[in-house]
Write a structure and sequence with these properties.
Chain lengths: 259, 348
């Protein structure tokens, strides 16, 4: 029931183990994200979601297990390595520079330089970055009153939209979103969820980590559930109910084939 | 929910074409820089009108610029440091240290008296001075970036230590044998009434304005000050950037130390101890936020001029010059207060 979504597997984790001292955060956990789908990764606190995301985005290195990108084993030993592979992460605490404008934030760490000698001297091509960011924001449906003001003067939803846009513009394979709507109001939340769907439609795998079950069921295509450091269940979102998800998270329901 | 209902907040390229790029003027207008400039021009105009023939004289203007030159170099470095959210209290004593080491080396190589030596020795002196400043910059930068000691403490330490070492080297006595070739050219020469010192400092300031506002180095300086965690996550080498910013501030203090030798012809070990505070006031008056992340170098230039214009104007007006620090203090506190309010409004 879970293998019928059709599209190719973008990122796969097999039997990851991660220990912090005597605590086993991941005990042979697996995870799959397919191209062009939103897959929600859910689980109770301490189930290992964050550790899983950290291992897949380069923030932590698993003690054992395998990570495959497009079917090929990869070694992701730093966030930079993950980004170079096309894996981006949106953090829940808005990792933007509030004093810089949206274009500067979009290109933060990936600045475009001018051509020729001025570029060699480190001079930025602000015009090209600005033009490109206007196009990208338009493509993703991110609405901003003004592209020239600092991000700090935008609303929380717009700030988060820029943070999301920054990751998805650069993500060619996978985007992890850790509670991307946690701090947002209703309208702003809808905006961000719209952006997520638009990203999915470009063929990128979106991994949504969320505690909000109705949100998970409305935006995700598939759901993978973790409990006590392993994957315990997989659902196709449209066939799953809130009770199924909660049951799997609490251990009342489990699927033999999931691990 | 669809994106078709797009009111005036809609964001699409067609809407944007009419707006054009942010001009340098818009950018200045949105920051405090333009207002600091207006205040500066206002002061100059006021003193000129009140005392025609006394304030706007060639001599007074030259004097004003020369007195500000060295301080401006320190303030330029300080602007970078404050934009990263740091502070550098050591700039004034690093200036002294650099001048002392440079003068001692020139004296030693000149056989005990460098007064009559030429360009070769002068260049050695320049390199030594800049390197000596850079050394303190590296120490400050390493302690701040890699040892995670707060900048206030690190540079308070080097503020004392740099002066202490300078005093140990000289035994507290100024070195006075600076090559006269240096004093007569860089120190007191002029080109069409513009002192060489002013030209040198103007060129350096323009270069650092370019570096801060148009290059990747400048962009990273803002990013590091605005949100270090965000900078780190996108792969900006946070520690290296901080290190480089303190290094360049040290290098600038080294240049200032050398120019100080050229101008005064002596090492001035007893002076410059409040240069750090004057540089910080200049930077903050110029609209750079003490909380990091924002600032404009032109603002620093304006902010550095204001206290000096006030001093000069008060002297000419017969106002006791003791009023100058009081006036500067009031404007300074007001500037930080406004910045604080702006930030609170933003983080509502």
């Amino acid at each position: 029931m879970t293998e019928n979504t059709g599209s190719e597997i973008a990122l796969e984790a097999r039997n990851l183990v991660k220990r912090y001292g005597s605590v086993e955060a991941l005990r042979g956990a697996s995870f799959t994200a397919r191209q062009g789908e939103v897959v929600a990764l859910i689980g109770d606190n301490g189930a290992g979601k964050s550790t899983m995301v950290k291992c897949l985005s380069g923030a932590e290195i698993p003690d054992s297990g395998e990570i495959l990108l497009d079917g090929k084993p990869v070694h992701i030993d730093s966030p930079t390595a993950a980004r170079e592979l096309g894996i981006e992460t949106v953090y829940q605490d808005l990792a933007v520079a509030p004093d810089l404008d949206p274009a500067a934030n979009l290109f933060l760490g990936r600045e475009l330089k001018r051509k020729g000698i001025l570029g060699a001297l480190g001079m930025l091509d602000k015009k090209a970055m600005r033009q490109r960011s206007i196009e990208e924001f338009a493509r993703l449906g991110v609405q901003l009153q003004d592209t020239d003001v600092s991000i700090g003067s935008l609303s929380g939803g717009q700030r988060q939209s820029v943070a999301v846009a920054r990751s998805v513009v650069w993500a060619s394979k996978v985007v992890f979103m850790d509670e991307p709507t946690a701090a947002l109001g209703v309208v702003q939340r809808e905006r961000v969820l719209d952006v997520i769907k638009k990203v999915r439609d470009t063929g990128v795998a979106v991994v949504l980590i969320s505690h909000n079950m109705p949100e998970v069921l409305s935006v995700a295509d598939r759901v993978e559930v973790m409990r006590l450091g392993r994957r315990v269940a997989r659902f196709v979102a449209k066939d799953a109910s809130l009770e199924d998800l909660v049951g799997a998270m609490t251990g009342a329901l489990s699927q033999e084939d999931a691990a | 929910m669809t994106n078709t209902e797009t009111p005036k907040a809609a964001f699409n390229p067609e809407d944007m074409t009419g707006r054009g790029e942010t001009t340098i003027w818009q950018k200045l207008g949105s920051s405090n820089t333009i207002w600091v400039g207006v205040i500066l021009v206002g002061l100059v105009v006021a003193f000129s009108v009140l005392h025609p023939g006394a304030f706007l004289t060639l001599f007074n203007i030259q004097e004003l610029f020369i007195q500000l030159c060295l301080l401006l170099l320190l303030a330029v470095g300080m602007t970078f440091v404050i934009i990263t959210g740091g502070i550098d209290l050591s700039v004034g004593t690093v200036l002294i240290f650099s001048g002392v080491v440079s003068a001692e080396v020139m004296q030693g190589l000149g056989g005990g008296d460098a007064t009559n030596d030429g360009i070769g020795l002068i260049l050695v002196g320049l390199v030594v001075s800049v390197a000596a400043g850079g050394l303190w910059g590296l120490i400050n930068g390493w302690l701040v970036a890699y040892a995670n000691v707060p900048p206030l403490i690190v540079t308070l330490g080097s503020f004392g230590a740099a002066l202490g070492v300078a005093d140990l080297i000289t035994n507290g006595n100024d070195v006075r044998t600076v090559p006269s070739a240096l004093r007569n050219t860089v120190g007191s020469g002029t080109l069409f009434y513009v002192p060489y010192l002013v030209i040198i400092v103007a060129v350096i300031t323009l270069f650092f304005g370019w570096l801060l506002h148009t290059t990747k180095f400048g962009r990273y300086t803002y990013a590091v000050g605005s949100n270090p965690e965000a900078a780190r996550r996108v792969g900006i080498p946070l520690k290296k950037q901080l290190m480089l910013v303190y290094l360049l501030t040290g290098l600038l203090a080294g240049v200032a130390g050398f120019l100080s030798l050229a101008f005064f012809g002596t090492t001035t070990v007893a002076g410059h101890t409040t240069d750090n505070l004057n540089a910080i006031s200049g930077v903050v008056l110029g609209g750079t936020s003490l909380f990091g992340g924002s600032g404009v170098l032109l603002g620093t230039v304006f902010g550095t001029f204001i206290p000096q214009v006030l001093s000069s104007g008060f002297v000419i007006s017969g106002v006791p010059p003791f009023w100058q620090p009081i006036a500067v203090a009031i404007v300074l506190v007001a500037a930080v207060w406004f910045d604080q309010r702006r930030r609170q409004a933003r983080n509502r």
